[in-house]
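User: Okay, second chain of the day. Same drill as before: sequence in, structure tokens out.
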Amino acid sequence: MISFFRKIRQKLLSQDRITRYLTYAVGEIFLVVLGILIALQINTWNDQRINRIKERATLNDLHLEFQKNKQKLDSTITYHKAILEAIQEVMSLMNEPESSLTNQPVDSLIYLSIDYFDYNPSQSVISELISSGKMNLISSDSLRILIFDWVSEIDEKTEGYDTMDEISQTQTLPYLTKKGSMKNIDYNGLGRVNGRSKFGFQNHSLFQDLEFENHMDNQFWAVSNYLLKLERLKEIVEATLERTKP
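Assistant: Same drill. Structure tokens below.
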């Protein structure tokens, strides 16, 4: 093909047809440029096709990860709502006569009031997206915003948990250790193997102490604050699942 064009150029030059030669040269340049543009467009289409395949795979991975996160988050929310209910039950019994507390599971309620745990979701897909700089694979602006919101809210959740843990560890538990029987409280969990206290102490007396009510009120606030963080994460999880579904 190249030799064919070369022969045409030589023939035009030998015939001294400069105008026709220039016209032909411009046409040849146009064809070359057009060929380059077509090749670039084909490469662009191919790159876009590959990126869409990668994006779909990434969305599938995100969807699966957030499905698992949602299951774990739902159970965590349900459990901490039960903690709030236990604290409310404890506070409803404050300053009641000890005789009326005899048939109440006070040790069990106190145990549940302080038996919290942190929500630790899987974040391998998001971490990979951010650390590898592959966020541009996601074409949806709203989904990218959700991912960044998730990372931010995880930090907020961690701060909420740390606050709850600090209140419990530095205030509630020291008080219970000093004023109550931790062995009777722990009997409702892993401490059951150790049996109840041999001192015959009853935690009913705690319910006549204003300080205990104050600690329970602090526990209620801390767990409520933590639950707000979890509920916000749930909103993001559900929105992410909606935008990544196959």
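The chain has a mean pLDDT of 86.

User: Thanks, on to the next one.
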